[in-house]
Amino acid sequence: MNGQRFEEPAAAVIIEIGHFALMLALAVAMVQMIMPFWGARVGDYGLMRIAEPAALAQFGLICISFMALIYAYVTSDFSVLNVFQNSHSTKPLIYRISGVWGNHEGSMILWVLILALFGAFVALFGRSLPQRLRSDVLAVQASIGVAFLLYIIFASNPFLRLVPAPLDGRGLNPILQDPALAFHPPFLYTGYVGFSMAFSFSIAALVEGRIDAAWARWVRPWTLLAWMCLTLGIAMGSWWAYYELGWGGWWFWDPVENASFMPWLAGTALLHSAVVMEKREALKVWTLLLAILAFSLSLMGTFLVRSGVLSSVHAFAVDPARGTFILAIMVIFIGGSLTLFAMRAKELRQGGMFAPISREGGLVLNNLLLTVACATVLVGTLQPLAAEMFGLKISVGAPYFNMTFVPLMIPLLLAIPYGPFLAWKRGDFVGASQRLMAAAVIALLLIVAVFAVVQHGPWLAPFGLALGLWVIGGAVSEWAFRVRLFKASLHENLRRARNLPRSVYGTTVAHCGMGVLVIGIVATTAWRSEVVTTVKPGESVAIAGYDMKFIGVFPGRGPNYQEQVGRFDVSKGGTKVLSLFPAKRIYDAPRQATNEAGIYPSLTGDLYVVLGDHLKNGGYALRAYFNPMVRFIWIGTLIMFLGGGLSLSDRRLRIGAPKPARKPRNAVPAE
Amino acid sequence: MTRKQRRAGLIGVVVAVIAVAVGLVLVAMQNEIVFFRTPSDVAALKVKPGDRFRLGGLVAKGSVIRGQGTKVEFSVTDTIKTIKVSYDGILPDLFRDGQGVVAEGKLAADGRFLADSVLAKHDEKYMPPEVAKALKEKGLWQGAEKSAKSGS
After folding, report:
1. Which of A67, A412, A420, B12 is deepest in the core (most CB within 10 A)?
2. How far apart are CA A202 and CA A412, in angstroms?
3. Are residues B107 and B62 both part of a single domain?
4. Which stretches within A533-624 are classed as H helix?
């Protein structure tokens, strides 16, 4: 009758088990942090070997905790405060599950779960790592776990109970009830937290005062995996923002977007740096520093999102007390690691020398440009915070970033095709240029062609397109060179192509993806068209060669919302193409309105229609866009993801893969 | 090239890239920073027409007047001073009387604010922190919107 609801005893216990498991995990993490580290310092193998079972136990316990939370959401157990605040009985099942991490507290459990997962991976698959290194890495990993588990248990606990339990919950923001957004956090967090591996390895290396090519062989796959997931996670966020927020924009330089982009920039630099370390034992210091930076930026990203100090479209958690806790975590880990780096970096033996014009040199330039670009994004993102301390309230938007970030990317894009063509240690710039001639010519031809065909838009746009095509052309040229395309028989070409290592294909594909991304960005930014007008049923709106006839607005009903659906019949050159149905929805709980755009996607560009308010004269306000080649943006990131996957699947680089036992030719049997 | 020369060269390149970046940042900061102001700030600072800034506050109740097509006028207030805003376009979904709003644009000669964008919020109870903070400072914070505890 009133708000009381009597829980099955089993359900109540499950939540408490989840809560208890979390606290046990904290205890285990503390053990894992201290014992193996101490053991590594004094050479006690018994202590060191505590690390692996501890890591596995920690993962198991956090798993239990996470599943208990999922159970609470799935069964709509509103006695759990977190479920009450973020869920509702009418929510579809998949969004009840994704609601677990769609809120602050639950997402932190996901964070430590992935952290523990990576630790468990090291414990399980890192058997061929030296024990001391393994223990040190797991100890550092555990220290991060301790920090975050303390935070969760004391400042951000999803297992708090409500008595008496309410009948129903407050519901999840309808804008977040979406497939892309359901998977966006797991991918993003795998990226963020994945960099913790490189970080842990780096701290271990600094503590031991040793780092070598084998270390890089270990770090690269994990970093690659983290980078891949981060790439996809960011792309999903961008894609979601595009179709959900109603402005047809795919990137807003929003502080929360930047918070994920900065680790990506540092992570990309780290990835390339690890390649050099692996091959040439050079760039040790760079690699260590980048690993620390990438993870530090991941922590900073968490802080920016969680503490709400910067207003943005996300507005996740607006609790200064929590922000202070995370700030303390950041100061300890970032400050501590950088201090350790400053003290110990000189212990590392100097690596191989190389000429300025060489693949190493190119990768140093790559690191430099990416890191500096990352710094400009950081400055732009933190500037409003800094200004606030002086009493000024400012906002820094796209114009700032376009003016600082873009110019730094141009030399990088120009240099990308040269990288694979320059030899290690001493490269031949002229020779490389000759091999890139075809790519350069095609790019230049594109500039001319675009100028001839398209008469409007910014004059820099064709150059931007050419830059993207240059990157693609360069990647393809390198592959063509390796298989001796046009210079040997087709049979020979195929033979070489089959024998090329997967990591080479990974590079080619990933760089192509980059080029595709650039083309998409330039095209959609330069030639986007927009129409803002009013329209009555029966009237037509013309945009980008399409003719959209407004039929009318009709009511409809979804699983947990009511909607007004508009219908536009789109035709081109007289023939009907399809109908678009932009809609305005009002959700049941919480009562909130959203706008669903009607989108007609195609490779050449998206038609994007948003229905506005109902006007007094019977018409409707309308906003329509044509976004040329915008799909290239996400296709490009997907291609980069696939390139990373190809590289990851290269047998030579897989850690822990047992080497096939090789019988010596003339084995002499033991007596 | 000796090791020393190589290192000097590397440092030179690093410094050059950083210098370029710093230059870009400084220029961009000077030109592209947009200040946030409440209606009281606008009056107090005697903001010049043509200066681009963001105006934040609450949508004054009953002030929304729709004109021809997508033209609309409304008033933004921080309960001390009020400024009329003109905007031509589609307003965000959650725009309504009494809600927090941030509009970006410039002042016209007659004191009206010509907005070229009105910021979208995606939470009914969301009040842009800038607005909330400004209102708090003026002692006008009402009902401490529990945006702090509810998460998104």
Report:
1. A420
2. 26
3. yes
4. none
Q: Is A392 on the interface with B (CB under 8 A)?
A: yes
A160 near B CB under 8 A: no
Q: Are residues B10 and B48 in the same domain?
A: no
Q: Does residue B152 sit within a domain?
A: no
Residue A223 and residue A515: Cα distance in Å, rounded? 22
In this complex, is the C-beta atom of A104 within 8 Å of any C-beta atom belonging to chain B?
yes
CATH assignment of the domain containing B119: 2.40.50.140
Cβ distance B33 to A407 less than 8 Å, yes or no, reads no
> pTM value?
0.88
Per-residue burial over A577-603, b if 16 or more Cβ lie within 10 Å, else e, is beebbbbbbebbbbebbbbbbbbbeee
Whether residue B86 is found in the same domain as residue B121: yes
**Predicted pLDDT of residue B135:** 63
The answer for B 88-147 residues in CB contact with A (under 8 A) is 88-94, 120-124, 126, 128-130, 133-134, 147
Are B29 and A355 in contact (CB < 8 Å)?
no
Q: Give A 333-362 residues with CB within 8 A of chain B.
A: 353, 355-356
Q: Does residue A397 lie within any of the structural domains?
A: no
Could you read off the pLDDT of A423-452 as tens digits, one per residue?
Answer: 988 899 999 999 999 999 999 999 999 999
**A354: closest chain B residue by CA:** B6
Contact (CB, 8 A) for A436 and A401: no
pLDDT band at B133 (very low <50, low <70, confident <90, very high): low
Across residues A143-160, what is the average pLDDT? 92
Residue of B nearest to A535 (CA): B69
Q: Which two tokens stand for residue B7?
A: 């290192």
Tell me which long-range contacts A497-501 makes (C-beta under 8 A, separation of at least 24): A501/A650, A501/A652
Residues A63 and A160 in one domain: yes
Asked if the interface predicted TM-score (ipTM) of this complex is over 0.90, the answer is no
Phi-psi region of B151 (alpha: psi -120 to 50; beta: other; left: phi over 0): left
Domain count, chain B: 2
Nearest CA in chain B to A596: B93
- Our CA-based measurement puts residue B110 at a distance from the nearest CA of chain A, in whole angstroms, of 24
Whether A245 and chain B come into contact, CB under 8 Å, resolves to: yes
The answer to whether residues A552 and A589 belong to one domain is: yes
Query: Which of A177, A194, A226 is the endpoint of a domain?
Result: A177
Domain match, B25 and B80 both: no
Range from A210-214, A263-267, A488-492, A631-635 carrying the lowest mean pLDDT: A210-214
Which structural domain range is residue A141 located in?
1-177
Q: How far apart are CA A527 and CA A455, in angstroms?
A: 11
Q: Residue A530: closest CA among chain B residues belongs to which residue?
A: B89
Range of the domain at B17: 1-33
- Asked if B28 and B81 sit in the same domain, the reply is no
